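Let us work through a complete example step by step.
Step 1: write down the sequence.
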Amino acid sequence: MNRRTILILLALPLILSVSAVSAQNGKVECSNGKVTIGFSAPANLDAFTCLTAPDGERAADNQPLTTAKLESAAIVFDQLRTANSVSPEMTVFPVNGLSQLNPEIYQKAVDLTSLLNTVNTEGLAAIKGDIPVLPPHEKPQLMSADAKILQAQGIVGLRFLTAFDDAAAGAANNNLLYAFQGISTDGRNIISVLFPIQHSAMTAPATSPKEYNWSALPEDGWTPRITELDRIIESIYVR
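Step 2: predict the structure and record it as tokens.
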């Protein structure tokens, strides 16, 4: 089935390049000239934007880590945009490029790799705190909940629910995220997926998100459905 690709001209910093996404035989891809990320698009999604940064640049001293430029290729899922401030993106970050940035950013890649190796041998019980997330966020991470190991083509990682906000805000439909943080089996690339997600039962913020029973929420209340997003993750490839 042919799929439309829509280029949306966004007000973006000059450090990012925006281009149309190639889509052939149901595959959607984005490349920065050095690395390519792709996946199999479901029939209900057909609007994507490709964002690329061929080189990295560290955040200046005394500036937040969010000002750093990360070498990357990202597919934006335009139809999954919500009031959530986090853009729905699937991104590949070459580890070598991260090593040239601020030490705190590279450390997240190191910590994620270490955690995935430990989970591979000890299982999900090895997760004792928050799962590291790239790219950096301005707000603190409130929780890493309902984690599951997912594998794709030469990729392994953790899918989980998270949110970034002030602690007083709690986790709610305006900041909840479906997250996947993985690594290619050759160790060369970090794969990060962040999708805004909402649940019909979340009528008030979870003020203690780390203790909230996220797994008790019915699957059919999620928009998008977690199982549908899992299938997208399992179709990711990097080359």
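Step 3: interpret the result. Residues 1-14 have pLDDT under 50 and may be disordered.
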